[in-house]
């Protein structure tokens, strides 16, 4: 009897460790080296690429505040992920909606634990960078007007209650994975999720003072262009790294990512040139990001010709979402997080259902390869992500508002600028 009790205790205590090693436990040094590099590339995307991209588009009086909120989002999400976020997203669970707390504080995962052909610790870190950039993307909808303290609380709650369930649905063995939804590197998990959340947050916060009545020039298009270049560079780790191996699929994802980004830039540029008579650097940079967003869910499933179409359409719909639809509807999505990430993410998810090619990845077959049902599955995944993100984000906003006594900065601070009023600093010495 005592021996039986000790056996049960041993099983319970070491269950997480055993499950972490239960998968293929053959370490591949080539795969490991590549995913270490890919993780570093994705890390650069948030506190460098996105901070510059968003910072340059924000007004000069709020540039440092934009940098600060991007940096703090990365820091907070990093901690939340390793303490409990990873476990909620990837912890073994009988539920198809959320993981367990098996791996809280990475319990049971050590230097010898292996996932697939790479160390489990490395997989945790790679996935962490995705959580970080996803919540940081939301900031683009609300710069210039959200309280720093409210943003901190929002990030903690959103990563915990919105990001981790969607991540589990798609990549952690949840119900969308079981349904057969295809999302190679984050169309649903990252871009639709963040884009919709940003739109909801911007609608709740309301428009910036003077929106639609006074010019709101970006502080530095040069910084934004540099940020777009860094995002483009980091996105190779984002998409090609999602193969989790140094193989042909990773190489193909690398190729189609670059091609779609280039086509997105050209599509946006020519649309703007025709519509507004001038091709702007800001438009070209935005088109690059639109193309990258569009190819993200499809990167490991589609071939080169498909990437040309996906990137071009992403650039076109990104431009019209930002330049036409937003202004006709009148919502204030400050830096167009929804127009670029939400809308182009939806297009990318649907395009995956059209162009997924079985010669690239086995079992991934879209409409043009004889599987019309995949389009319906992709549509369901989009609707589910939009609905969950919208409703869940609204609840998170409400809780954040209660905990922080309101979301929006004081009118005086908003007019004066958040760099000086909140941080006591200035990005530029203009005197």
Please sum up the structure shown.
The protein has helices spanning 2-21, 29-57, 63-90, 120-138, 148-171, 175-179, 187-205, 221-240, 248-276, 281-295, 304-329, 337-355, 373-404, 411-416, 418-423; strands at 114-115, 118-119. It has 431 residues and is an all-alpha fold. It has a single domain, classed as Ammonium transporter AmtB like domains (Ammonium transporter fold, Orthogonal Bundle).
Structure description:
This protein is mainly α. The chain has a single domain (25-423), classed as Orthogonal Bundle (Ammonium transporter fold). It contains 15 helices and two strands. Helix 2 runs antiparallel to helix 3 (63-90) and helix 2 (29-57) runs antiparallel to helix 8. The longest helix is centred in the last third of the chain and has 32 residues, at 373-404. The protein starts with a helix and ends in an 8-residue tail after the last helix.
């Amino acid at each position: 009897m005592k021996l039986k009790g000790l056996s049960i205790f041993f099983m319970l205590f070491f269950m997480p460790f055993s499950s972490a090693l239960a998968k293929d436990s053959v370490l591949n040094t080539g795969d490991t080296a590549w995913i270490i590099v890919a993780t570093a590339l994705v890390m650069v995307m948030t506190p460098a690429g996105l901070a510059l991209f968003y910072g340059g588009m924000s007004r000069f009086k709020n540039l440092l505040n934009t940098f600060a909120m991007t940096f703090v989002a990365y820091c907070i999400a990093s901690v939340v992920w390793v303490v409990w976020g990873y476990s909620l997203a990837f912890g073994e669970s009988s539920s198809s909606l959320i993981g367990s707390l098996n791996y809280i504080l990475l319990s049971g995962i050590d230097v010898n634990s292996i996932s697939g052909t790479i160390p489990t610790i490395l997989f945790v870190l790679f996935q962490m960078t995705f959580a970080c950039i996803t919540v940081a993307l939301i900031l683009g909808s609300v710069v210039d007007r959200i309280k720093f303290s409210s943003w901190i609380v929002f990030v903690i709650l959103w990563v915990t209650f919105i990001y981790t369930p969607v991540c589990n649905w798609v990549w952690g063995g949840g119900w969308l994975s079981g349904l057969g939804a295809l999302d190679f590197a984050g169309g649903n998990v990252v871009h639709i999720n963040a884009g919709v959340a940003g739109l909801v947050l911007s609608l709740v916060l309301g428009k910036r003072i003077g929106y639609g009545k006074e010019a709101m020039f970006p502080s530095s298009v040069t910084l934004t262009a540099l940020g777009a270049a860094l995002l483009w560079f980091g996105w190779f780790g984002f998409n090609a790294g999602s193969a989790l191996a140094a193989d042909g699929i990773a190489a193909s994802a690398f190729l189609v990512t670059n091609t779609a980004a280039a086509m997105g830039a050209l599509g946006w540029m020519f649309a703007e040139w025709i519509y507004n008579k001038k091709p702007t650097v800001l438009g070209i940079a935005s088109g690059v990001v639109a193309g990258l967003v569009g190819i993200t869910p499809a990167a490991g499933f589609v071939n080169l010709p498909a990437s040309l179409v996906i990137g071009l359409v992403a650039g076109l719909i990104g431009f019209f979402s930002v330049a036409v639809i937003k202004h006709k509807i009148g919502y204030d999505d400050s830096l167009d997080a929804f127009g670029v990430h939400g809308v182009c993410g939806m297009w990318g998810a649907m395009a995956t259902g059209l162009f997924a090619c079985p010669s690239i990845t086995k079992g991934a077959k879209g409409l043009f390869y004889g599987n019309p049902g995949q389009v319906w599955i992709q549509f369901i995944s989009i609707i589910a992500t939009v609905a969950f993100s919208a409703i869940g984000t609204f609840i998170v906003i409400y809780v954040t508002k209660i905990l922080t006594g309101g979301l929006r900065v004081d009118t005086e601070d908003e007019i004066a600028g958040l760099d000086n009023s909140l941080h006591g600093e200035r990005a530029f010495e203009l005197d």
